[in-house]
Here is the input.
Amino acid sequence: MSGEVDLQEIAGPNETKLNVIFVHGLGGDAKGTWTFDETPLHAKVSGKLSQLLPNFLRGEPRLKEPTEVAFWPEWLAQDVDGLAVYSLDYPSDPKRWRAGWSVTKSAVAILDALMVDRRLRGNGAPIVFVCHSLGGLVVKKLIVTANIDKGQEPKKGTFLDRIVGVAFLATPHQGAFLATFLTEFGWMAASESLRDLQANSDALLDMGNSYRSMIEDEGRRIEHCVYYEDEKVAGLKIVNAGSANPGLTGVRPVAVLRDHLCVCKMQKKDQVYNGVLALLEEALKPRPDPSRKVLEEAKTAAEAAKENTEAISQQQKSDSATLNEIKELLALAHQSGAAQRAIDQGISEAALRAVVERLGGEGLLRDDLIPWLDQWTAAAARELRDGANEGEAFDRAFAKARELFNAGRIAEASQPFMEELERRRKAEEQRREEEKLSQLRLVEEAIKYDKLALNGEAAAKKLCVMAEIEGLRTPEDLGGFLLEKAREFYEIGDRFGDNAALLVAIAAYREALKEVTQERVPLDWATTQTNLGNALATLGERESGTVHLETAVAAFHSALQERTRELVPLAWAETKNNLGNALATLGERESGTERLEAAVAAFHSALQERTRERVPLAWAATQNNLGNALAALGERESGTEHLEGAIVAYHEALKEWSQERVPFDWAMTQNNLGNVLSTLGGRDDNTVRLEEAVVAYREALKEHTRERVPLAWAATQANLGVALAALGERESEIARLEEAVVAYREALKEHTRERVPLAWAATQANLGVALAALGERESEIARLDEAVVAYREALKEHTRERVPLAWAATQNNLGNALRSLGERENGTARLEDAVAAFRNALQERTRERVPLAWAATQNNLGNALTALGERENGTVRLEEAVAAYGAALLEWTRDNVPLEWSRGKHNLGYALSKLGERESGTARLDEAVVAFNDALKERSHRSVPLMWARSAGDLGSAMTLIAQRRNDLAMAEAALIRLDAAFTLFRDVRHVPDAANYGKRLQRARALVEHLRFT
Here is the structure.
């Protein structure tokens, strides 16, 4: 993908007989576009990022120094003697096109570069272009430009004459979704140049018309072959049959079983290769020399003239005899009075002569002439006299016929009526066509309003009306029409987030199933059920309810009645994979794990046929989907078995989804891997998994760039922020937390509320977490205030009705920030607000649904109640806090989540110590000491120094109070050691609030030790 036009020579023979020039498409390059590694069999991919971005946006795969690959332009040089092979590189970076680069600019630049290229000028041989995608539009524009300019610039005409063939591979002649998708979905700014590439734009239509006219005017001198994809990229077909058709007489697009990105790559000499080879061989056939052609035409003309002269001589002899006979017949007509009778009836002499000539030419005998003439005269007079009263057009035809008749051109006199008939027939055909189009437009508008009314069923019924208007009445025709329309609406709904379009697609698939029946065409019926399931699942993923997802599952199960493993193993596996995705999405919304487990089973089934050896990329897709389902299971459970399984699945996927082969899929899997590592890291007492998560996210960002896939880049930045924030909470320094804030703010540059409201809200919520963690380490409250603002921003989109669990998580985090602020203020308003936020969160964060999240909120509620209890005289709040911590520890067990268990133990110890301070005995304080010691079993100085310091310091405070009440010097000295260690760490890392807090406690402990030593 060069910044300028670069014609790269692939093969150059000693004597060039023909040149072939390969032209890549948008985002391609001179080598990678035509290089095969392994043709991917794409599958629907589920996951956090795949829901945001379709697979094809990775652009055309580009290989970095490939080793065992197939570059088919080289094969042509071996198979065609005298063939010079070139591959063209030109500015095709999407960023340049976004900035205003265009088809016209590319065509003009390439035309100039090719005309001045010394190699092409030197060999003078004919030229054939092989074009992929956008490259075909550029070459069409190049040819049209040369044709327009050849009058003023003869050299362009000479160059144009050398072009003898064009191969179009997946070229969107009607625009298709090439630029419509990019601009409408926001990945590229809608520049003028990109708008020209949108479906059915005026620019494309004008160029297509000009190209067709030129090809027809030149007698179809330039040969063509056209191929387009019949497979989808991540569920969508970029160029369909209609858009692939250049509209040239005798040129029919041919579908091939590849997707848009791979139609130009081949592992062996297949249909596309043979088609291009045949085009080149046709171009090599000898073409007549123009000068020789002129001589041959002159010779042929001379011979024809000689033959014509002889024929004329013979005809003259024959005409002379006939003329004598006619003169005799005319004389007889006049002598008998028949001629005069005709003239008296208004018949002209010329007409009379013409009919006599006609009769004489038929060999009429003299005795029969007069009866014939009298009969003819009566009929002619009647016709000329009566005329007709059929309107102005009819009268014009009648007048013209009479004029011809009177002029003696009786053989032509009927023609005006036939011309009028033809005119009327054409007018009627045009009227019918216009009426048909008018009716279709009426129905189309009606469908638009049904779509606005979210009435997919009504729209589907009107699609049947459209089919009837088109004359499609057989089950095959009607079913095919409905399936095509359903696909169109599905692609719009899938790509542009248009849920109403998905409703129409769903209804259209259901209507099609009335024609595509299980009894008549079982496999087509099963395919339609699968497509229906995909549409239902896509819509269901966007909704908070589960009705459409449930129906999708039913559709996939129906498809599996005919798509059996024995009959169509790969189709069976595809449906199993898609069933797994729908089940996984359902499972993520339910409190139980039954659906998620069923999803895992479906993916395992799919992998029985989707093997690495057979369909490696589809195998990798299903491994990725399996990882997602296992990750969702693992997030719900206190154990780590499923999370570890997810990591294995992602690593398996990465064996085939390499960065070189499928960079976007590789990046997506790295991101998903990072998510699981981050979740596991949150449960470990060390930071290894979190560090690995950061590495995975940074790997993903190598391909998830802001320029290329801004939303994927933003999502990965946000996930990176989560891992960095988790690391920062465990470290004494604040560098990681600061990095997390930077990552979130980067993500918000693309995660805007207008564009992706839920992703924006999630990023705001995560930003709040990082700001709150920073605020807890600072004496000022500015960061905490910013955190509260971020959480409240998030709640504008994270509503309970729309995303109940996300709403609950944000309420939980808001409560944490309010508690931290409340602890620094004299009043209790913020603390009361925090308690309210936690209780809100627990309405959706139930133990049955999300046990670990429920435990986290119970713990946080305990923290707020403890802070309130410290400010009140009674012990009610503190007792409630102890109960909340006890609840949290029901799920936060040491075996499953050791670090969270230690957190719960520490907080329980703190609440117990506060209760103990208000009681005369030491029972509660003794319980607190046990809790703090438990916490320290998982909180080491090395792995989580800040947490260790808090537990050690709070343990020292509880022990100090016990020692004071028991006059126990040994315990007081042990407490002093712990408090000194805690203070020293907080002081050394400049953790000001905690250093001040534990410094005061340390002074009291020293005073107690001194007192006990001298009493």
Q: What stands out?
A: The longest strand covers residues 83-89.
